[in-house]
Structures are given as C-alpha cells and as structure tokens.
Amino acid sequence: MRDVIALLRTLVLPSGATSGQRIILDGDNGLILVYDSSSNLRERIGFSGAIEIFSGDPNEILGGDLQANISGAGNPRVLVLTIESPGFPARTRSAVDLISQSFDGTVLPMIAYTADSHEFSGISGDADLKLNGVSLPRGYIDSNEKATNTDISAGGTCATVTVTTVAGRRYRLTAGWWRITTTVTNSVTSMAIDESGGSTFKSQRQLLTSAALFGAGGTIVTQITPSAGSHTYRLQGSTVSGGGTNTVAAAAGAESYIIVEDIGV
Q1: Is the domain of 49 the same as that of 160?
Q2: Count of domains in the chain?
Q3: How many CA within 13 A on the CB side of residue 36?
Q4: So what's the pLDDT on residue 204?
C-alpha cells in the first residue's frame, strides 16, 4: 500500500481550516504558509527562494525577507545573504547584504547597507561605533551663536554652550568672532575658550587693537578630554592692557560662536 502522506499534495493544519490561524503545506508550489488568527499571512517559505515575514498591515505589499543568492560569475563570484524590510506599495525598503569572500579569495567579505539614513542606538548609553578597534567620532554635539556686541573692557562672554560629555572621549572646541573695536590708541585684548565660568582656560589669543583700525577677527580651536557629565564652555573676551572701551562686534551673519564636536577616542 502506498503511503497516504506521500500522496498528499496540500496539507492544512488544523485539518480542514479555511480561515483563522493555520499552516498550509503547498506541495504543488513548494510553499509553507503561516496565517495568524485574523487570517493574515505572516510567514511564507519557498517563494522566489526566500523566507518572508509579514507584519499584518493591510497596506503591506512586500514582506520582510531573508534570501541567499550568488552574485557574479566565475571564480570572483560571491555568496550573498540579503535581509530586506517589509514594504508598502511604491515605497522603498532598506536592506542589509552579508557578502562572503569570493570563491577565488580576491574579494574580501563585506556588509552592505542600503537605506536613506542609518541610526545606531545604545542600550545602556550612547552607541559606540569602532573601526579596527578605534572609536569613531560622533560629530556635532551642540553650539551657540551671539549676534550682538559684547563689551570686554572688564571681561565678557561672547558665546556659551553647555553639553553632556562622556568619560574618555575627546572633544574639539571651536570658537570665533568677527572683529574687536576699541576707543584708545592701543589696547591689548585676549580672546579665550574657558570652562565653567573661567575656572579652566582651554585656549587663548592676545590681540593688539587701535582706535584707527579694527582688531582682526579670529578662531580658536582646542582639543579636550573632559570628565563625564555637564560642562559649560564659553568664548570669553577680556582686556589685558591699554584700557579704553573694548568691544567684540557681532551682527546677524557675523556672529560670535562656539561649537562642540565629538572627535572620537
């Protein structure tokens, strides 16, 4: 007697179910279909050689899929495992390709990401991306601009920014100003980046200014490795000698500013 199971072309579990949660083994098409309690297709195995997972959204047209392929031909060919997100009609999907080393070893393994943006989030803190063991820069943290003049005759703050830093990481502080004016023949002024109200100077420049000429604008750049926590950094101006009224000039489009950037470890 021939095996009854071997004669089956389609098997539905539970037997006879036509709606609701069920599994269909489709021998004719080489498919396994899994439906949820609302009769939504949730998993499909075998279609176009892929394993597909569906979200159940009524407007979903493409399921998320996992598929292995051969890319290229001959000895340089590689094997690719592709993971794609589900998708809506006429909308793009993100994908990750895990690419093997080529058959002849001339092409190294690679991971390719396809998306309009990439976001990495940490579980217990900020995400850390490393390249060959070196932590990559996280880039721009925060900044501040001031578009009004600052009197620095007795010291003045031209721009200030407060950031939360991570222990062990390096940060670049960049501050700049447009120009300095004075009411006396010669005045020596100082422009500096300081921390927390002047307790620690990070970098500074001294400039000679006369009433007949504007003091040059400038930029200060310095690198720091602060402790973890909140830190306030300022672009601070002061008068060193010569007296007079000394002013860091600023205006819309010619602001005084300070920028904080994470530059790695």
Answers
A1: no
A2: 2
A3: 10
A4: 74
Residues 193 and 146 in one domain: yes
Structure tokens at 149: 């003049």
Range of the domain at 77: 4-114
Residue 176 lies in a domain: yes
CA distance 127 to 42: 32
Does the pLDDT at position 198 exceed 80? Answer: no
Residue 252 lies in a domain: yes
Query: Using alpha carbons only, how large is the chain's radius of gyration in Å?
Result: 32
Torsion of CA 85, 86, 92, 96, to 10 degrees: 10
Residue 1 confidence (pLDDT): 46
What span, in angstroms and rounded, lies between the C-alpha atoms of 85 and 68?
15
Distance CA 200, CA 246 (A): 23
- Report the amino acid identity of residue 264: G
C-alpha closest to that of 172 among 136, 126, 225, 128: 225
pLDDT score of 242: 86
Mean pLDDT, residues 29-47 taken together: 95
Distance of CA 236 to the CA centre of its chain: 31
Task: Check whether residue 63 and residue 176 sit in a common domain.
Answer: no
Please indicate, yes or no, if residue 123 is contained in any of the structural domains: no
